[in-house]
Structures are given as structure tokens and as C-alpha cells.
Amino acid sequence: MLEYTGSGPAAAQSPLSSLLQTAAVLRIGTGLLLMTRYGISAVQNAYHFFFHETPWAWVPAFHEAGMPQAHLLAPIVAILIVGVALSWIIGFLTRLFAFVFLPVVITTLVVLHNAGSPRVEAAWLYLIITVTLLLFGSGTVSVDQLFRLGEGGSKKRR
After folding, report:
1. pTM of the complete model
2. What's the CA gap between 86 and 39, in Å, rounded?
3. CA nearest 111: which of 71, 41, 40, 63?
4. What is residue 16's predicted lDDT score, i.e. its pLDDT?
5. d(CA 156, CA 158)
6. Which of 36, 95, 98, 150 has the smallest C-beta neighbourhood within 10 Å, fewest atoms?
7. For residue 49, how far is the Cα from the chain centroid?
8. What percent of the chain has pLDDT over 90?
9. Which of 1, 37, 48 is nearest to 21 (CA)?
10. pLDDT band with cut points at 50, 70 and 90 for residue 8
11. Alpha-carbon distances of 61 from 21, 49, 66, 119, rounded to whole Å
């Protein structure tokens, strides 16, 4: 897209148009969906599992999938999901959290595929979104952009 020609500065863009021209919509939408669909209930169930000793469906599922220390791994994954979702919503260290979330999504995809679960499509979508955020970052409307995180190196002064 041709923004401007010549040596003059580009025309000022509205904040709404800069929001829609970035990965922010994908990042925020996925973060909200991840938080509301999986994160909040997972952390609540992990809390009740640890402090009230109530059974939690994730622990036997992790154990049946052959994962070691399922009673510790399930709460760690629940906390990780909430951390990733919160990071994606505000746009803080998006690439780092996408990299940390990548093994969780791949493991979930393999386990759900082997179990023949209908949630495989959701796992594929989360994998595609995670790779996209890993490659492109948080976009212009984020905490990363506010503090210029992830730009790599300082610019030379003349």
C-alpha cells in the first residue's frame, strides 16, 4: 500500500486504523478467548485441587496421556495458560510468551489427536495463532511497542 511519496512524512493515521492494520486484533481476541474459555476455569480448578483436594479432570487426563507428575504439571499448565492469555491481551513480551506456549499447544494437539477428540480443530487454530504471534510480534498497539521491546539493538546516533 502506498502511504506517501517523496521525502515528506506520511499522513497521520487514526488509532483505529493502526489497530486494524496490525496483529493486535488477533492477539487480543485470542488472549481473551484463551482466558475466558480455558484460563479462568483452569486456575480455579487448580486452586480447588490443591487447597480443597477436590478432583480435577485434567490430572487423570494428563496421567492417561503418559505425562510425568500429572498432579504438578496440570496446575503449572493452568497458570501458564493464564499468563500467556494475559500477556497477549496487553501485548507484553508477546513473542516470548508465544514461544513458551508453543510446547503446550503442540502437546495438546498430539494428545487430542491421539484421543480422537473433536477439539483438535481448536488446538490447530491456537497453534497457527501462536506461530503467527511468534513470527510477527504484538503489533503497534501493545506494551511492547510502548516501551520499544523486541526492536533489537539500539539505533546509531549521527
Report:
1. 0.78
2. 10
3. 63
4. 61
5. 7
6. 36
7. 24
8. 44
9. 1
10. low
11. 40, 14, 9, 14
